[in-house]
Design a protein that fits this description.
Elements (H helix, E strand, L loop, with lengths): L1 H31 L3 H114 L1 H115 L7 E5 L2 E4 L4 H38 L10 H35 L14 H6 L7 H5 L6
Antiparallel strand pairs: 1-2
Helix pairs in contact: 1-2, 2-3, 3-5, 4-5
């Protein structure tokens, strides 16, 4: 890279030196009236300077192409990063869904296990009751045997005892049944309360999560709107600066044209004009074929710029009409009023720039009719054809523009 810069700087220096020599030698030829052999040497040096300048332009074009390739690589990396982030978000959503499904399955399993426990307890209670009944029957049979022995003696007493015991047993059974019912009701109440608390906490968590997401979305929307307003303001400021620079450059161009007029009067360079055709006058350096092609390019560019200027003016007028109809919201949250003003100013500045370029194109076409197209308004020397093809309305040499003497 350092070698390229060094070769470029040496090429620029070598390109500048022949131009200075070629600018001085024609004046000496007019004064001293030298021979034809001495007139060919500056022309050769001028050609060498033009070739070196073209080499410098090629190096600059390669640098611009390298920058574009680097920008494309950066954009590709950003797209890949966005895709990876999207995949991560999708994987996270999938994992959250799997967790929810697992939680539901666990709750269902827990409920089934609880139902199994309740059934097992009921079965155990029934078996216990049957066992008690069986034991009571055995005791009754034994008592009956004893009572048979002394039935006659203690019949009334045995009957009374039996009735008393039966009442006691029934009372005890009723008490146990009531206790079981009370415990089951208390257990069901505690379970329902726990489930209700769990549902309330879950609902609250979901509401908090939704509120946080809405707040984040509002913050992101506001930040995006502020960033957009800042970008539009920057563009408008850049457009204003460009318009100001264009105005200053126009002043410099007019000054340069005045200086060129004075130099033309001093006859530093003589333009040898050739035949004219269709409103175009050819010269020694630029033939009619080249001039016709340049005029076509100028007309195409002129039509394109006029359409652009009209479109920008229509957009600016539409923004003004919307403001008058009251469609724009002027408040702190909306911010549409500032955005509309900035966009309108930007459109107006860009339209003015396009119309300024159209006036320069018209001036170039007029110079074709006078036979002055393609010659620098600063020094009067011919502008290289490569530069005129790239910028058909150019009015100065690259070296003169680099020195700050002109506009194009």
């Amino acid at each position: 890279m350092a070698a390229k810069k060094k070769s470029t700087s040496t090429a620029k220096k070598s390109a500048k030196k022949p131009v200075k020599k070629s600018a001085k030698r024609p004046a000496k030829k007019q004064v001293k009236k030298a021979s034809k052999s001495t007139a060919k040497k500056p022309a050769k040096k001028n050609a060498a300077a033009v070739k070196k300048a073209a080499a410098v332009k090629k190096v600059a074009a390669k640098k611009v192409a390298a920058k574009k390739v680097a920008a494309k690589k950066v954009a590709a990396k950003k797209v890949a990063a966005k895709k990876v982030a999207a995949k991560k978000v999708a994987a996270k959503k999938k994992a959250d869904l799997a967790k929810k499904v697992a939680a539901q399955k666990a709750a269902a399993k827990k409920k089934a296990e609880l139902a199994k426990k309740v059934a097992a307890k009921k079965k155990a209670d029934a078996l216990k009751k049957a066992e008690l009944a069986k034991r009571a029957a055995a005791k009754k049979a034994e008592a009956k045997k004893k009572a048979d022995i002394a039935r006659e003696k203690a019949r009334l007493k045995a009957e009374a005892d039996r009735q008393r015991k039966q009442a006691a047993r029934e009372k005890e059974a009723q008490a146990k049944a009531k206790e079981r019912e009370r415990q089951a009701a208390e257990k069901a109440r505690l379970k329902a309360r726990a489930e209700a608390e769990k549902a309330r906490l879950k609902e609250k968590a979901e509401r908090d999560k939704q509120r946080a997401a809405e707040a984040a979305e509002r913050a992101a929307t506001k930040a995006a709107a502020e960033a957009e307003k800042a970008r539009i303001r920057e563009e408008a400021a850049a457009a204003k600066a460009a318009a100001k620079a264009a105005a200053e450059a126009e002043k410099a161009r007019l000054k340069a044209e005045a200086e060129a007029k004075k130099r033309a009067e001093a006859k530093k360079f003589i333009i040898v004009k050739g035949p004219s055709e269709d409103g175009i006058t050819s010269t020694k350096e630029f033939d009619l074929k080249f001039l016709f092609a340049q005029r076509d390019a100028l007309r195409i560019e002129r039509a394109k710029l006029l359409g652009q200027a009209d479109r920008l003016e229509d957009e600016a007028n539409a923004l003004i009409a919307d403001a008058e109809m009251g469609d724009v919201q002027f408040d702190d949250e909306g911010g549409e009023g500032d955005t509309m003003v900035v966009e309108r100013e930007r459109d107006q500045v860009l339209s003015a720039q396009a119309r300024q370029t159209v006036s320069e194109i018209d001036a170039a076409i007029e110079r074709m009719g006078r036979g002055e197209y393609g010659y620098s308004v600063v020094s009067g020397f011919p502008i290289p054809k490569e530069r005129l093809k790239a910028l058909p309305w150019a009015t100065e040499l690259v070296t003169e523009r680099a020195g700050g003497l002109g506009r194009r």
